[in-house]
Amino acid sequence: EAAMHYAKERGKGDYQLYFPSLKTHHTEKLLIETRLREALGGNSFTLSYQPQIDLKSKQVVGVEALIRWEDNVLGKISPVEFIPVAEETGLIVQIGDWVLQEACHQAKIWYDQGFHLRIGVNISPIQFQRPDFVEKVNGILQKTGLPPKYLDLEITENDLLYNRDECYKTLKRLKESGIKISIDDFGTGYSSLSYLRRFPIDTLKIDKSFIKEVIQNINDQAIVTSIIQLAHNMNMRVIAEGVETSDMVAFLNDRECDEMQGFLYSMPLKKEDVIPFINKTEPQKVL
Ligand code: C2E
Ligand code: MG
Ligand code: MG
Ligand code: MG
Q1: How many H helices and E strands in the chain?
Q2: Which ligand is nearest to the CA of 87?
Q3: Is 121 in contact with 87 (CB distance < 8 Å)?
Q4: Where do the EAL domain residues begin and end (predicted)?
């Protein structure tokens, strides 16, 4: 109570509570920040790649790059935990550069081996809003030699809330370069639907929270069905995230969802496991 009173006194609707747990949290954040700075100079980041499967052909058509961090001191830390810290401290810019570079480099290696996979890269709003973002992405594509149409930038609805005109220009320039744009976690953000018709977007990724109970929950069924129809009516593709059971696959197939991603087909894989996985699932594929 006293802590709450203290927080209120600090004014301006600041109702933060100063409980020990929060303090620990703060210390933890500082520690993560310190270790992240060190990680940037070393090699404790890696990327995992989760296959994205075309529902009709059952072929792997893309992979999503997901960052992994194993720190000497802190051990393995989930991106859910460290990405927000990286965003608060601005370190996300350097981390994001590394992710883009590494993902495009790897996709080019696969491309040269005859596997023309689209590569999804998660982009933080802080990266996306920087004035040099488009040049940076184009520079990385040029340097790595990956054809732009294989790069798929995943942004979230909330990224498009502010500076709409700037966002629009950025998206348009990326499109003009031939790069693909996906809206990640679609349905969970705050933005209105009006941006969808104005902004050049290729793909909607249905958030996994709508897929989780889609078999049991008729409201989730309605939402998923509507998102698929909305996307198709606007000439966009749809990917369902978090597909864990064959019931879900049947449901998505019936609703003509384009692609799926989830633990049923594959966990995120180490880079050396991606091509063996594809060869195992598609033995008919000959180079
Ligand atoms: P996301 O972009 O929505 O990525 C999908 C997340 O769902 C991944 O978690 C993935 O491992 C997980 N997932 C995949 N299939 C299933 C499934 O069937 N069931 C369930 N329950 N989960 C599944 P991960 O790798 O822990 O990443 C969490 C989030 O961290 C990502 O969500 C993304 O927002 C962020 N993130 C990851 N890598 C990066 C990165 O390189 N840059 C940025 N800015 N954010 C990243
Ligand atoms: Mg994503
Ligand atoms: Mg994401
Ligand atoms: Mg997502």
Answers
A1: 12, 9
A2: 1
A3: no
A4: 29-282
Q: Say if ligand 1 is within 6 A of residue 262 CB.
A: yes
Q: For residue 92, with 0-12 CB atoms within 10 Å meaning exposed, 13-18 middle and 19 or more buried, which class applies?
A: buried
Q: Which of 100, 122, 209, 266 to mutate to test the pocket of ligand 1 (most atoms within 8 A of CB)?
A: 122
Q: How far is ligand 2, taken at its centre, from the CA of residue 98, in Å?
A: 16
CA distance 257 to 236: 11
- Give the DSSP letter string of 53-79: EETTT--EEEEEEEEEEEETTTEEE-H
The residue whose two tokens read 């929270």 is 209
Ligand 3 midpoint to CA 224 (Å): 18
* Nearest alpha carbon to residue 115 among 180, 57, 63, 153: 63
**pLDDT in 10s for each residue of the chain, 287 residues:** 344 433 334 444 444 444 455 556 888 889 999 999 999 988 899 999 999 999 999 999 999 999 999 999 999 999 999 999 999 999 999 999 999 999 999 999 999 999 999 999 999 999 999 999 999 999 999 999 999 999 999 999 888 888 889 999 999 999 999 999 999 999 998 777 888 888 999 999 999 999 999 999 999 999 999 999 999 999 999 999 999 999 999 999 999 999 999 999 999 999 999 999 999 987 554 44
Q: How many CA atoms does the CB half-sphere of 52 hold within 13 Å?
A: 23
Which residue, among 130, 108, 105, 123, has the nearest Cα to 46 in the 3D structure? Answer: 105
- Of all protein residues, the one whose alpha carbon is nearest to atom 46 of ligand 1 is 122
pTM of the full predicted structure? 0.91
> Is the distance from CB of 52 to CB of 259 less than 8 angstroms?
yes
Cβ neighbour number for residue 208 with a 10 Å cutoff: 16
State in Å, rounded, how far the first CA of the chain is from the last one. 68
